C-alpha cells in the first residue's frame, strides 16, 4: 500500500492563509484546462454540456439538480464558456462567479418543464428554443460551422440542433469528458480525503448513539446532522440493522428498533464535499459479535484487500476482478442467480469523483470480457460483503491509485468489526 507523506491529508474545512489546503481556484482551473485540452485535440469546435457533473467540472458552478436542462454550458475550442441557467441562478452567478463572464438565461428544453407542459407542441418549442439559443452563441464565438459535442443522447434535442445545420457528436463528447475526468488532480484527491474524514465523523455518531431500542432512522439522523455540520452535503446513504443487513434493505433506513446482538452497518454514499462523492461502508455490532459474524467479516476484508493488492498502474480490470469472489463466494444459490451480471453492487469497485460511479469499474460481471487499464491518479471505492447468522457484514475502502499501488483514503479501523458497548 502507498505510504502517504507526513502531514499529507485533510487539514481542515475552512479557508486559511497560513498553510496550503485545497486550492479551489487551482481546482477549477486545472479541471477546465484538462477538458479544454481534450476538446482542442478533437475534431469538434465546441461542446454543449447538460450533465450536471460535466458542467461543474468545466465551470466550477454548484449543481443542485434542478428540473433538468434548465442549465447548460457551451465550451469552445478557443476556451470560451457560455453558461445558461434559470433566472435566479443566473443572476446570482453573475454576482458570485467572476471567473465566468457570459451567463445567460436558459430555456429548458429537457427535464421537468417540458414534461409538465402537457403538449407536444410546447415540448418541441422548448427544445428548438434551447437549440436556437446555443446556436446563436456558437455564431457569436465562430464555432457554428464546426461539429458540436453533446453529452446527452436526446434525439429531440439533436434534431433541433440539426434543424440549424449543426453536426452533433454525442459519443465523442461523452468519451472526451470521461477521459478528462478519470485521472484526478491533487486538489480533487484532497476533496475525496476530506469527504472520507467527514464520513468518519458520521461513523463516530453511530458508535455514540446506536443502542438497543434506538431506531435506525434516529441513528442515521444523528450521523447526517454531523455530516452537514462539517460542511458536506448528505445526498445519499443509510444505516441498517439486524435482519435488514442481509440482503441489504433496499438501501433504505427504516424505523426498525435495534436489538442486542444486531449487526449494524452504514453506507455513506453520495456524501459530497465540494461536489466530490463518497462511498464508504463500515460494520458495527451491538455487543460482541458472534464467531460466525467475525468469520464472515474476516472473509469480506480478505476479499477486499485481495482486490486492493492487485490494483496498480498498468494492471487491467479483467485480472483485478479475480480478487472478488466466484459465484460460490457470491452466494449465488441464495439469490437464485446463475451469472455474475445478476449480482450488481455486491462485490465490485467503481470510480469516484463528481459522480458516485465514474471510470473505472472493476466487476466480474463485466471486466473479464471488457477490460480497461488502470492508471495512476484514478480514484475508486472497493466494496465487499458476506452473510452470517441471518445478518450480513459489509466493508468498503476509498482509494487513489499511486505509482506503486493504492493509497487508502478511508481511515476508520477495518481489521475487526467495531463493537458498540451499551
From TrEMBL:
The keyword Hydrolase applies. CDD domains: APP_MetAP. SUPFAM superfamilies: Creatinase/aminopeptidase, Creatinase/prolidase N-terminal domain. Residues 190-403 form the Peptidase M24 domain. Pfam families: Creatinase_N, Peptidase_M24. Keywords: Aminopeptidase, Hydrolase, Protease. The lineage of its organism: Archaea, Methanobacteriati, Methanobacteriota, Stenosarchaea group, Halobacteria. PANTHER family: AMINOPEPTIDASE, XAA-PRO AMINOPEPTIDASE P-RELATED. Residues 31-119 form the Creatinase N-terminal domain. This is Xaa-Pro aminopeptidase. GO terms for molecular function: aminopeptidase activity. InterPro entries: Creatin/AminoP/Spt16_N, Creatinase/aminopeptidase-like, Creatinase_N, Pept_M24, Peptidase_M24B.
